[in-house]
Amino acid sequence: MRLDFVGVDPGNPDDDCPAVFIDPETGDFYFQGDTVTDPDVIAWINSDSRIKDTESVVRLPAAMAEIIMEAASGRYERGKRRFTPDTHPRPAEDVRSTREQADIR
Hints:
- By secondary structure, the protein is an alpha+beta fold.
- The chain has one domain.
- It contains 3 helices and 5 strands, in the order ββββαβαα.
- The chain has helices at residues 39-48, 65-73, 95-101; strands at residues 4-8, 19-22, 29-32, 34-35, 58-59.
- Strands 1-2-3 form a 3-stranded antiparallel sheet, covered by helices on one side. The chain has a two-stranded antiparallel ribbon with strand order 4-5.
- A hairpin with a 6-residue loop joins strand 2 and strand 3.
- It is globular, with a radius of gyration of 16 Å.
């Protein structure tokens, strides 16, 4: 599997951040963010769109609206990396660099 990184919350320079990714083959969106556990929010969402056991609600901050629009419009930079292999804060978890070095897609 290969995903395109689109961007992270501009207000969070640390490595623990909400982020947006795109599957370049299907165009599907992947959102990394805080899992919503507030029962009132879950109930509200569930009243319009049933949340299945296999689903979760993820919150992304409003500051990421431009990044989400960039992903939705297809204007994002394909192949962009947040961290290069040399600057990755957790090299042992950098699956993407490992796959690229082995030319695995």
